[in-house]
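Help wanted!
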Amino acid sequence: MLTQERKRYLLQVLKQQGKLEAKAVAAELGLSDDTIRRDLRELAAAGMLQRVHGGALPKSPAEADLDARKSIASGSKQEIGKTAAGLIKPDQVVIVDGGTTAMQLVKNLRQDQKNTIVTHSPTIAVALSPYPLITVIMIGGTLFRHSMVNIGAATVEAASHIHADTFFMGVTGVDVKAGLSTGDLEEAYVKRALSLRAADTIVMASSEKLQVASPYVVMPLEKASGIVLEKNTSSPFKKLMKQSGLDVFVGGKNNERKGHVL
Amino acid sequence: MLTQERKRYLLQVLKQQGKLEAKAVAAELGLSDDTIRRDLRELAAAGMLQRVHGGALPKSPAEADLDARKSIASGSKQEIGKTAAGLIKPDQVVIVDGGTTAMQLVKNLRQDQKNTIVTHSPTIAVALSPYPLITVIMIGGTLFRHSMVNIGAATVEAASHIHADTFFMGVTGVDVKAGLSTGDLEEAYVKRALSLRAADTIVMASSEKLQVASPYVVMPLEKASGIVLEKNTSSPFKKLMKQSGLDVFVGGKNNERKGHVL
DNA sequence: CACGCTTTTGCATATATTTGCACGTTTCTT
DNA sequence: AAGAAACGTGCAAATATATGCAAAAGCGTG
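Answered by r_m:
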């Protein structure tokens, strides 16, 4: 690979991803870290990018073509949201939980996606409004500000009238012993109720949620059908999930569901 | 994640959310609190934000793009919203319709206002979330994008379990002969249902809605208890309203309700 | 093709930065 | 006033960086 070609590639990565990690690119191109660092140093001297410890960033934040709102999410949640969105098949009826990870799922839907999405989060409902082919059904209740979801008896009751294919659930704790857990009792009830209304429940969990037990248990791990994880989740943990009977989905791969009917 | 990238992220959070809690961000990014605190300290030293105990705030309050939308509203709707908000008494349970005028009502609530607000609009629910003392109850249903309100049988059914003091209703047509009307049949049903669940129904109508008949009738004028109008509405029209038995409220005046029990 | 020259690349070493933790202090809450 | 939470500082381990150097590859000239 030519040096100049490589430099152009670096700038392209920067524009496309909004950031660049020297070590990762070096590994990707099969070169030493030093070489990439040298390139970055030179590009920075030429004013083409801003050199930072560990890699580089666009000279001005605005220069990334990323949707500003998308980039506000930590890369990990964005990755999980994208993977989860990819699991939704045309014309399915899915329930989408509240929370930032679920929000990333919404942001990663395709404009031409045709589905019915049920949610008990007004924030998610508002975020869904730009997608013309998606029918949005809201479940009411008492608004719980902390997570911006509706909770309470009314929510559980309203959910009982729904039958969905998949429930995409966010939790704050995923642990083999403690199961799936969250920080609020009412929220746990609602998540459980929603899970019962869907043929499959798929958990979305970024790394900081793993092997953590929150105060209120939603359900044991085995009750879920699958889990979406970050690509770089440790293999032992992925294995644990599989041993609990869950399908494991990570970004990048071709995620064909097997073992469960969608 | 790169250090500088994280700092940009912190600033972005601050701009978008108007505040930042160190601990919450640390958990979200899977880093120690110390690291975030260090970042905030450095950003504060660089004058990029204001450090406060527990997190950070934008350097100048104006820098949050929060209230940006408030100023977009036409003066007339803002005026009507303010007048309507002033009619809400402490601890009342009120139903708030969807739409831009209702949004102005929300924006004009006081931070220390203590009420229960019922709404079938996810947009309104989200807008209400910054008011700590307001209990928000959402009525679910199928999202009708055009007005960002939930409609359909589920909405009407859920409404039937509510008893409120006042319903603040938006309509697209107010006419003595045609009554109160709107542009969508389902929306009309919902408005009617909500009206029946409140002791009083107060209509919010900016000048362009007056003496206009929209396709679907919500109810005759006399069924409403009051109407909020712009200050400079023609006196004959105000008189017509009074003759139909409605209390007329306009901005600036001391709006004491009389003739109807709140 | 041989030769010297330049460029590029990877390595070794020394230096700098980042990060999490421990500990004592300050600030908030009740 | 007491307890909890957040804070700053110093420190050590991990990581990233700059620099000098040498090997390898590319280049032009004769």
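OP: Thanks! One thing I noticed: Residues 3, 31-35, 38, 53-54 of chain B lie near DNA strand C (CB under 10 Å from a C1').
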